[in-house]
Design brief:
The chain has helices spanning 2-13, 97-106, 124-132, 155-164, 245-253, 256-266, 280-302, 306-319, 331-351, 353-362, and strands at 19-29, 40-41, 48-59, 65-74, 79-81, 113-117, 136-140, 145-148, 151-154, 169-176, 179-192, 196-200, 203-207, 212-223, 228-236. It is of the alpha+beta class and 363 residues long.
């Protein structure tokens, strides 16, 4: 299954300068599933389930989803992964990023990959590891002490100073929680100069390293009256020649696609947390089948020719889903429509059209 997803990405990467790869984690809760003997303890002792980690690729031009390229599932007993059939180590979330970056690079997907990760991966020590290994990353940062123009300051103070000097510029429309908005951006160069930190047993030790210059991009979403709705402080080692300030902000905005994928798996399409398979291995196998189905639907969504549009409309009709007039076609609706179509074709092949018509007439 994962090879099918890799091929989908390679096909889409052809002709693209950059691919985006969102790295994220998602807990799968199975409280009450006592038949599953390998449930792990998640956020607290009464939260039982599995921990899902995914590297999810998207087009850099518009954030259109393509496919997962690396998937792992942590149970109480082991970690199942598309990377290897053998045992892979159980690492803290942030320590999983570098092995995933190396694995994705070895896949030769056909375009450079920029990894987009949320604040959980904001670590000076790990930033140095990624950069030294030659990986491109875009991470939402927490406030931290940095050097700017040779002087110590913080990311928050830098963002406020840039805004105070009127350097934020409007780069176009955006959407925030379904509301019309505008995106404003500005950037500066900062240097991560502090020692990193690493856990050794129950202690944190400092890990010295070379100063690391990065681009600091401030992105603010304003409502139509100019009021700030959200701010992201972004750090990246992607060059300005590869992506300007506005593009970097949009790339982080596209990261929410992986959250949409989680929602599709858990509540809007596959109802993953209701699956009755008795262990993580079976859950993982079924999960890969579900992700392959999603990959096929995302490919259909990216097509806009007449035949593809007609097929999408047919699937939505078969799904029976009610949709907003502004968005008549949805991913979950297409998945539901495919399921109905497949079952209908199976019934047609088994009974034939005449018998089916007679059943309908006589019912």
């Amino acid at each position: 299954m994962i090879q099918f997803m890799h091929q989908a990405v390679r096909h889409e990467a052809s002709g693209n300068d950059v691919l985006l790869a969102a790295f994220d984690w998602c807990t799968l809760g199975f409280n009450g599933h006592d038949s599953k003997a390998d449930l792990a303890t998640l956020t607290h002792e009464h939260d039982r389930g599995y921990d899902l980690a995914t590297v999810f690729t998207m087009r850099a031009s518009d954030g259109a989803p393509i496919a997962p390229v690396d998937v792992s599932l942590k149970t109480d007993k082991r970690v199942f992964s598309t990377r290897s059939e053998g045992k892979i180590p159980d690492l803290p979330h942030i320590d999983q990023v570098l092995p995933a970056m190396r694995y994705v690079r070895e896949l030769n997907l056909g375009a450079p990959v920029v990894f987009v990760v949320d604040r959980e991966a904001d670590s000076i020590n790990h930033w140095r590891q990624w950069s030294q290994d030659g990986h491109l990353a875009l991470v939402r940062g927490d406030d931290r002490t940095v050097l700017r123009e040779g002087k110590e300051t913080t990311l928050v103070k830098t963002a406020e100073a840039l805004k105070r000097h009127g350097l934020l510029r409007d780069v176009g429309p955006a959407s925030y929680r379904g509301r019309r908005a505008r995106l404003h951006v500005v950037e500066a160069e900062v240097v991560l100069h502090k020692p990193g930190r690493r856990n050794v047993g129950k202690k944190k030790i400092e890990v010295p390293g070379e100063p690391l210059p990065l681009r600091f991009v401030v992105a603010e979403v304003h409502d139509m009256k100019g009021r700030k709705l959200a701010r992201w402080m972004l750090l990246t080692n992607v060059s300005a020649e590869t992506a300007d300030t506005a593009k970097i902000a949009h790339w982080y905005y596209y990261r929410w696609r992986i959250e949409t994928m989680h929602k599709l798996l858990k509540s809007s399409g596959h109802q993953l947390e209701s699956w009755l398979q008795r262990d993580g291995q079976r859950i993982f196998n079924k999960l890969l089948i579900a992700l392959a189905a999603c990959t096929a639907i995302w490919r259909l969504e990216r097509r806009h020719d007449k035949q593809s549009q007609e097929f999408k409309e047919l699937l939505m009709e078969l799904s029976g889903r009610q949709t907003k007039r502004s968005k008549p076609i949805t991913t979950s609706g297409l998945l539901a429509g495919v399921w109905v179509l497949q079952k209908s074709l199976e019934a047609h092949a088994r009974h034939g059209p005449d018998k089916l018509k007679a059943m309908l007439r006589d019912s």
